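User
New here, explain this?
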Amino acid sequence: MFQGLRTVIYPAPRLAEVKAWYTQVLGQPPYFDEPYYVGFSVGGFELGLDPDAAPATSPAGPLTYWGVPDAQAAFERLISLGAQVHQAVQEVGEGIRVATVLDPFGNVLGIIENPHFKFQPVS
């Protein structure tokens, strides 16, 4: 039985550079740091960086949105740290705001401000 999402893995062929960027974005060092994989704990979930994963060739495919309290502020911070605009912040209904950026390594990073979502761990 599924217990919920746990890990999102981004390709990181330049692992040291990608790790440094996400350390700055997340404001914390990784909890797991090896030459073959780097893992960050983010609000009970994991962002994994894999130097051997196939690099993103296009922004198509599964898209992960990371929850933020203020989509516009998070979007502006990501851009100031070197991300590129993929889709600017937009309201998608009922107070939910989303945006996507391309990190400096070509991965699509989604953010979502959702006042209706309340994290409930599965027991």
